[in-house]
Amino acid sequence: DTAVSQTPKYLVTQMGNDKSIKCEQNLGHDTMYWYKQDSKKFLKIMFSYNNKELIINETVPNRFSPKSPDKAHLNLHINSLELGDSAVYFCASSPQFGGGEQFFGPGTRLTVL
Amino acid sequence: QKEVEQDPGPLSVPEGAIVSLNCTYSNSAFQYFMWYRQYSRKGPELLMYTYSSGNKEDGRFTAQVDKSSKYISLFIRDSQPSDSATYLCAMSPSGSARQLTFGSGTQLTVLP
Fold first, then answer.
1. What whole-number percentage of chain A has pLDDT above 70?
2. Are B36 and B46 in contact (CB under 8 A)?
């Protein structure tokens, strides 16, 4: 009965590869988010989707593309991976856009070699 | 200058101590204030959620917001080793663009 789940938990890949991270929430929330957490634990919003529509697209490289097949899923596809993409990526959801009550997934630790 | 400043620590206290964690911010539009707890290799979990100035208590945890000083605090009473984690403050403005801005987190260790 996990609220927000992500797969995979760990991802190790070579520079230049393309990879995807999947996220699912079973809370019935309208809004989902992707965050990046760097090695210093700083959490930064990347994308937000409200009812399958992109409503925030922070200044992230266009190699990152979120895709939401329905409001319970928000996947993150990354093209041409670079060393600097190594981080922990968290998916989150909230009942409505911007609500402080955001529920986070367990994270995907991406390592680019 | 970052919008939200938080002392990264690390902070070590003995079991039973009162812990005080703090954040300062510069954006006067922030209206919603939160504290998240993040255990090692886990996702952040919401601990406290407050709106505007004032205090909120939940068990051993008390959150305080002083908007005039742009300062928020989280107090943990009777701290336990299980409280050892990174504590992240987060805040957002009101209105339609209420995205969260996080502090960098304070790493807390409660020693048995």
1. 94
2. yes
Residue A31 sits at the chain B interface (C-beta within 8 Å): no
- The 10s digit of each residue's pLDDT in A74-97 is 999 999 999 999 999 999 998 876
Report whether B26 contacts B93 (CB < 8 A).
no
CA distance A81 to chain B (A): 22
Which residue in chain A has the smallest CA separation from B104?
A: A42
User: Taking CB atoms and an 8 Å cutoff, what residues of chain B touch A45?
Assistant: 99-100
Please check whether residue A107 touches B, CB under 8 A: yes
Res B7: pLDDT: 85
Q: What CA–CA distances, in Å, run from A1 to A23, B29, B37, B39?
A: 14, 37, 21, 20
What are the distances in angstroms from CA B93 to CA A10, A60, B61, B101?
34, 22, 23, 9
> Which residues of B are less than 8 Å from A105 in CB distance?
43
